[in-house]
Amino acid sequence: MKCKGCGIEIQTTAENEPGYIPVEVLERRLVEGKEVYCKRCFSLKHYGKLIDGFDFDHSLELLRRYLNLAPNVLYIIDIFDFEGTFRKEIVELLKDHQVFYLVNKVDLIPEEITPMEIKRWVKDRFKVQSTRIRLMSAKKRRGVASLLKFLKGKRSRKFLTIGVTNVGKSSVLNALADRDTLTISRFPGTTLKAIEFRNREHGLTFIDTPGIITKDRVTDLLDAVCQSRVLPEKKLMVHTIKVKKKPRTVFLGGFVRIDAETGELPGPIFHVITSENVTVHETNPETANIKWSLWFGSLLQPPCTQQSVDEYGMRKKKLKLVTGQEVAIKGLGWINVARGPLEITISYPANTEPVVRKGLVGPLKFKYKN
Ligand SMILES: Nc1nc2c(ncn2[C@@H]2O[C@H](COP(=O)(O)OP(=O)(O)OP(=O)(O)O)[C@@H](O)[C@H]2O)c(=O)[nH]1
Ligand SMILES: [Mg+2]
C-alpha cells in the first residue's frame, strides 16, 4: 500500500524511516475507509512541519524511468524561477513524448505586468507551438478549467507530471482533480515516489512524480527549512535602484552582490525583483566591502544562519546591459534594467551562473521618483 500524499510504501515497523504510520492508526483509517497517509505527510498537511529530511536522490536517471509510465507529459515550470526550472537536460529527455508546458505561479508576478505581456514573453522562450504552453496558478486556480478542457480533448488520457522540486506539480494535480489528496508543502522534495490516480469525473489519469533535485540554483545551497522560508508566497517585491553620481551596491540576500557603475546623467535605473523573504539591501561599495561577511546570514538573508561567505567560492562577472535586459539569478529572482545602459559587477556563488535574458518586465514599468 502506498501513501496517498507522497507515494512512499506504507510501513508500520520503523518509526524513523519513510512511510511509517502507527499500526493502530493504519487499522483505524482502513476500517473508516479513509485515505492512508504516512506520518511525514500527516505532519506536513496538518502542521506544515517537516519531521525528517529523507535523502532521496531524485535524479534525471529516475525521471528517465518515470517517462515510461505515460506518453503525455505535463512539464511544470515556475515563472518566478524560469531559468532554474525550464531546463535543457530535461527537455532533451522528452523527445518521444507529447509535452505540454505549464508555467505555474503566475499569481506571483506584479500586477503592472499584464497577462498578455507574460504570455508573449513565455511564448518567446519556448520553441514550440503556442497551444502546448499554458500559464496558470494552481494556488489561485487560474487556468485550471481551460487546461482540463484541453486535456480532455487529447486522444491519450494519461498524463505524467514532471519538473524540478517545488514548482507546484502536486498543487497543479490537486487543482486539476479539485481535491487536496496529494501532499504539497514549502519544503523541497515533498513527493517521494510516483503516484497514479484516476479522475473519474473527467476520465483522465494523472501521475505525480518527485521533483528533480538541481544543483545550480542559489537556493540549492540552503537546507530544506531555509529553502522553504525564502520561497515566495505573495506578489514578488520590486525594489528600484537609481544610480546617479556615485556607484551603488545592492545585495540580494547574502549570496548575490551587484555593484552598479554611474552612467551618463540622468543615470541608470534598475529593478530587483525577488521573494518577500529575500533581503534586498542597498548601500555604497565601501560599506559593502567592510560589512558583507558580517551581514552574511544576519542582515542579509538567505542564508538563514550566520556563516562564512568565503565557503561559497564567490565569483565575479562584469556585465554591460541595455534597457529592457534582465539578469536572472536561479532560485533567487532577477534584475531588470529600466533605464540603461547599466554596467554592473555581479558577485555570485560558484554553483550558479547568472543568465542574461530579454526582459519579462518592459522598460519603466514600475513607477519611480527621479
Ligand atoms: N504562489 C504560488 N505558489 C504555489 C503555486 N503552486 C504551488 N505553490 C506553492 O509551491 C510550493 C510547492 O508546491 P508543491 O505542489 O508541493 O510542489 P511540487 O513541485 O509538487 O514539489 P515536490 O514534490 O517537492 O517536487 C508550496 O508552498 C505551494 O503552496 C502557485 O500557483 N502560486
Ligand atoms: Mg510534489
UniProtKB/TrEMBL annotation:
Pfam families assigned: MMR_HSR1 (PF01926), YqeH-like_C (PF21516)
Listed SUPFAM superfamilies: P-loop containing nucleoside triphosphate hydrolases
One GO MF term attached to the UniProt entry: GTP binding
Positions in coiled-coil regions: none
Domain of life: Bacteria
Domain G intervals: 160-243
InterPro entries: GTP-bd, Mito_lipid_metab_GTPase, NOA1/YqeH-like_C, P-loop_NTPase
Record-annotated NOA1/YqeH-like C-terminal domain positions: 270-360
Matches recorded under Gene3D superfamilies: P-loop containing nucleotide triphosphate hydrolases
Protein name: Uncharacterized protein
Species this chain originates from: Kosmotoga pacifica
